[in-house]
Amino acid sequence: MNAAAVARLTALGRAELTLLGRNRNTLFVALLMPVLMIFLLRSSLTGLGGGTGGAERLPMGIAAATLVGGTGMVLMLVVYMSLVSTYVARREELVLKRLRTGEARDAEILAGGALPAVVIALVQCAVLSALGPAVLDTAAPRRPDLLVLGVLGAVPLLAALAALTTVITRTVESAGLTTLPFFLLSTMSSGLIVPAESLPDPVAAVCSLLPLSGAMELVRAGWLGVEDGKGLLGAALTTVAWIVISVFAVRKWFRWEPRR
After folding, report:
1. Under a CB-based contact definition with an 8 Å cutoff, are residues 254 and 163 in contact?
2. What value does the CA radius of gyration of the chain take, rounded to a whole number of Å?
3. Given its phi and psi angles, is residue 255 left (phi above 0), alpha (psi -120 to 50 degrees) or beta?
4. Fewer beta carbons within 10 Å, N or C terminal of the chain?
5. How far apart are CA 249 and CA 258, in angstroms?
6. Is 228 helix (H, G, I), strand (E, B) or coil?
7. What predicted TM-score, i.e. pTM, was given to this entire model?
């Protein structure tokens, strides 16, 4: 990427950050919703474990499960769900159409629009990794390298899936509905709440092929450490495959202007 492309990307990101600050709903989803969801997740897992005395019945323990799921929640809410609203709003306002008449390439326009959400998500993940263990009285990430790899794999994947979801999202108001199926599927089947090892083997095999499952497997390994690293290569390859598929789908079907 040359200096001109970096300058365009930075300018687009700065403009999007300004617009983000003016949109209270999107700002709430990006900044406060992940925190609320993490507390709700911890409460749910505590109830599942039968209170504080039942933590040992959870495969990963309540605190560790909260940190793994919390990382996934931050990525889902900040990168995926907020970006769908952002892209749809810019499309309906004809901002994307106007940007395409300038020097910026299509990839730069989409990346620039995603830049603030990505930065916010990475900062929140970093804060969760640094302060979460102290607050929840659990161990720090045992393999920070795998945790970083999982987060960095999930970010472009979720950004691409957000752009793809806009194809079926006509208005900003409908974004909450169109993002809900993937949110629920990933939450329940990709390891955000229910660990893969607690599922029957045939079900776990199918769930391991879902878009976010590979990245979450790396995130889980980053938090909890790795006893057998054989499955991590498959998780990484699954994530890369879904990124390639999603980017291809965006290039083919993404709409730059509203349907009339």
Report:
1. yes
2. 19
3. beta
4. C
5. 18
6. coil
7. 0.87
Residue range 203-251, pLDDT digits in tens: 888 999 999 999 999 999 998 887 666 779 999 999 999 999 999 999 9
Tell me which residue of 176, 181, 212 sits closest to 84, measured CA to CA. Answer: 176
pLDDT reading at 57 higher than 80: no
pLDDT, one tens digit per residue, over 60-106 is 577 788 888 889 989 998 999 989 999 999 999 999 999 998 888 99
* Angle at CA of residue 13, ends 8 and 19, nearest 5°: 130
What are the angstrom distances between the C-alpha of 70 and each of 23, 79, 94, 106, 194? 24, 14, 35, 32, 13
Q: How far is CA 162 from the centre of its chain?
A: 9
Residues in the chain: 260
Spatial distance between the Cα atoms of 114 and 81, rounded to a whole number of angstroms: 11
Write the single-letter amino acid at 147: L
Tokens of 37: 């969801």
Helix axes 3-22, 106-136, angle to 10 degrees: 60
**Are 49 and 129 a contacting pair, CB within 8 Å?**
no
Cα 44 vs. chain centroid, distance in angstroms? 21
| C-alpha dist (Å) from residue 26 to 6, 13, 101 | 25, 15, 27
- 68 within 8 A of 216, measured Cβ to Cβ: yes
Nearest to 208 by CA among 224, 223, 181, 230: 230
Task: Give the separation between CA 147 and CA 221, rounded to whole angstroms.
Answer: 7
Q: Is 210 exposed, middle or buried (0-12, 13-18, 19+ CB in 10 A)?
A: middle
Cα–Cα distances (Å) from 56 to 62, 97, 236, in that order, read 8, 54, 29
Q: Of 182, 157, 161, 144, nearest to 238 (Cα)?
A: 157
What does the buried/exposed string (b/e) look like for 148-162 if buried means 16 or more CB atoms within 10 Å of the residue's CB? bbbbebbbbbbbbbb
